[in-house]
Amino acid sequence: MKITETYSHLNGLEFLLVHKPSLWEEIRIVIETVDADLCRTKVSKEKTMMGKLLFSPVELNSTFNKLFRSRSWTESRVSYWVTKNEKLIRKTLMLSADEQKRKIK
């Protein structure tokens, strides 16, 4: 695959480019390694494209997961509740999701 566009959520790309360039390089290499044509496995059921092979999101995600895992990357998730009150978010961010919910509600 080629990177043709980027969207930098909360300036994440800029952070990587400035502070973690080796991580960005690794991400870029993984993206360029993916052969998207091998992920054209979803058969369209739409009337205007009946039978056409489309990119399978499941197949693409699986391919990315395998490539990142082969480079010792692991998934990390953080659950948190959001509120417009910035001070409250900062106070609750390090609490469990249940505690955050209770305090924010």
Helix content: 40-55%
Largest sheet: 2 strands, antiparallel
Note poorly predicted spans.
none
State the end-to-end distance. 44 Å
Q: Assess the beta-strand content as a share of residues.
A: under 5%
* Count of discrete structural domains: 3
Q: Using the alpha-carbon principal axes, give the shape.
A: extended
Helix- and strand-based class? mainly alpha
The total of beta strands comes to 2
How are strands sequenced across the largest beta sheet? 1-2
Structure report:
The chain folds into 3 domains: 1-33; 36-74; 78-105, no CATH class. It starts with 11 loop residues before the first helix and ends with a helix. It contains 5 helices and 2 strands, in the order H-H-E-E-H-H-H. The model has no long low-confidence stretch (mean pLDDT 94). It is mainly alpha-helical and 105 residues long. The chain has a two-stranded antiparallel sheet with strand order 1-2. It has helices at 12-19, 21-33, 57-70, 86-92, 97-104; strands at 42-43, 53-54. Helix 1 crosses helix 2 (21-33). It is extended and about 50 Å long. 48% of the residues lie in helices and 4% in strands.
